[in-house]
Amino acid sequence: MKPRLFTPGPTPVPEETLLELAKPVTYHRSSEAKAILGEVTEDLKYVFQTAQPVFTLTCSGTGGMEAAVSNTLAAGEKAILCTAGRWGERWRGVLKAFAANIVAVEVPYGQAVTPEMLENALKANPDAKVVFSTLSETSTGVGHDLEGYGKVVAKTDALLAVDGISGVGAMECRMDAWGLDIVVTGSQKALMMPPGLAFISLSEKAWKKVDATPVRSFYLDVRRYKKSLAESDTPFTPGNTLIKAQRASLKRIRAEGIENLWARHNRIAAACRAGVQAMGLKLFAERPNSALTVIKVPEGVDGSGTLKTLEKKYGYKWADGQDAMKGQIWRLSHMGYTDAFDVLGALSALELVLSEAGFKLEVGAGVAAFQKAYAAGK
Amino acid sequence: MKPRLFTPGPTPVPEETLLELAKPVTYHRSSEAKAILGEVTEDLKYVFQTAQPVFTLTCSGTGGMEAAVSNTLAAGEKAILCTAGRWGERWRGVLKAFAANIVAVEVPYGQAVTPEMLENALKANPDAKVVFSTLSETSTGVGHDLEGYGKVVAKTDALLAVDGISGVGAMECRMDAWGLDIVVTGSQKALMMPPGLAFISLSEKAWKKVDATPVRSFYLDVRRYKKSLAESDTPFTPGNTLIKAQRASLKRIRAEGIENLWARHNRIAAACRAGVQAMGLKLFAERPNSALTVIKVPEGVDGSGTLKTLEKKYGYKWADGQDAMKGQIWRLSHMGYTDAFDVLGALSALELVLSEAGFKLEVGAGVAAFQKAYAAGK
């Protein structure tokens, strides 16, 4: 049986990237290492759609989120938290650890926080320093209107911080044009890499707040990364083999073109939704994003058991719901190094498992609908 | 030309470990992933010589040091900093970021902080909460008497935190038997891995202080790692491909046996010192450790230029001094996946370069002395 990874992080990694990781380790302070970091930084600026430097942190995405919080908020300062799921709650966890005064704009799982809700919160809290938001709420499949957020936040003195961990590279996200002040992402999602690196970029407006905020971390102090990156270097021993491998995946992204990449994800996501619905299944997210498709487990079906069978019998590794959502939803990633044929196979496997379990569906309807929608897309 | 890495981190990585990194990425919340983390944790306990759990953090060694500081010190609490070089100064940087009240026990580069000095500082500062120390001061080649530190700190209420980043696995270090309360290390030194992971373990005495200390980080909060590790899991997406690779290197360490590993490093280090001195060169560290050999650049020799020639002409990558020490010393690592024959080659290359540059030495004396000392060792 052939194992296939469809979890919304980690995602499949191209062979040329994996092979980079198998090469002998080299010194991280050489001119060659600096040149590699320079290339990676330029390619990340392209992916982020920003003219600002993008810093490479050796940590998980959550470490990147902590950098966003610890560098911009003094203890007790007010933060607006837009939360629509588990990853909004991750922001809350970090904010609590840093003693922020949290004003939450909260919606139930499956729904999206709208720019109007955020605008109202900003009006009610003119002393809010930073808004924390989630581009792709991977726990529910919701995508947020960051362009809309950017417009309402730009009218205020607050900063807009974005967890783009499973969104950047999978869905349209234009840091500079949309007025996003802080964008964080991780290597193991749409950037086609194993986990271990996080990336963060800050607007000029954000730097002003950083410079006025007391130091609250050493390892995640963005001032240190800024100073080092000016010499194409890192302040601490970086995960340099990961950086070399990231370069390979970024070259692939650059060759495809960021707008083509977004279009590919949109086209696959739309086809996937059509396929899912043709199988008689319902989507979970009211505003689905293109990084993943999240399906409601139908009444009477064992959600977690179905995923176990999918993996055991056909090798397809989907993701279950997290925490209270376990068994309630199925999550299928189509991020990064995943194409239409991969996703078609994943739907085929789900059709087979559901049909074998006695769930009523027309075998073939799902894959045909996927194919039809994909062919009609562009 | 054949490139050979002798920097004191990163160090060479065994082929079987590198090949793990080239395997397809898998999901980090599977039972297989948990079993791997369980194995790695057990092997790390063996390497640390502790019965306490060892936590795997996805970050550089400095991130591990920050975990030691942020989890044990409230702002303004007193810390005794033992500093004998750049890595002692790294502790100082982290301590400053966390607003510690720092009492420094400082010696010039090349010298060691003795247990007596520490004892005096503890007597003068009975309110000190934590002592921060360095097992292998890689910037100078000094090794510290952690067994001696352990004895004096055990008599007090203070904790003993050890930066073991380039020491653990290269020189004797017994966390439990020596009374070390916090030990931190990184993957890219004697543990034969690329950079990207840090490891930390805490004694019961340390946990009591942690539980009484306000939360100052989310990503590096050791309570979260403790809770997750009880289920053989990690709180945040870990560098799971690195963890799999670390398992391979730990198996190698386990097969060799930790005491054999220490003995191997000691034997190579002693032979290396003999070789260096037979070349008419002087050692820099007054209390040299077995992780690396640090040599004073002789009068009239271009220190940095010699290293450039070594690399360009013979492929040997040694490390220069850092910051103010640049050009003053040469640093040769013999940590991890490096054996006597590797180090013999490195000395041979240095002899050739020095001789070619007109430095007066008897060609062959260095390698012969190395060989003789190595043969006499055990």
Automatic annotation (TrEMBL), chains A, B:
Superkingdom: Bacteria
Residues engaged in binding substrate: R331
Any Pfam family the entry gives: Aminotran_5
Entries under PROSITE patterns matching the protein: AA_TRANSFER_CLASS_5
Transferase as UniProt keyword: yes
Protein known as: Alanine--glyoxylate aminotransferase family protein
Domain Aminotransferase class V, first and last residues per copy: 26-313
GO biological process: glycine biosynthetic process, by transamination of glyoxylate
Keywords: Aminotransferase, Pyridoxal phosphate, Transferase
Family under the similarity heading: Belongs to the class-V pyridoxal-phosphate-dependent aminotransferase family.
Modified residues (N6-(pyridoxal phosphate)lysine): K189
SUPFAM superfamilies (alphabetical): PLP-dependent transferases
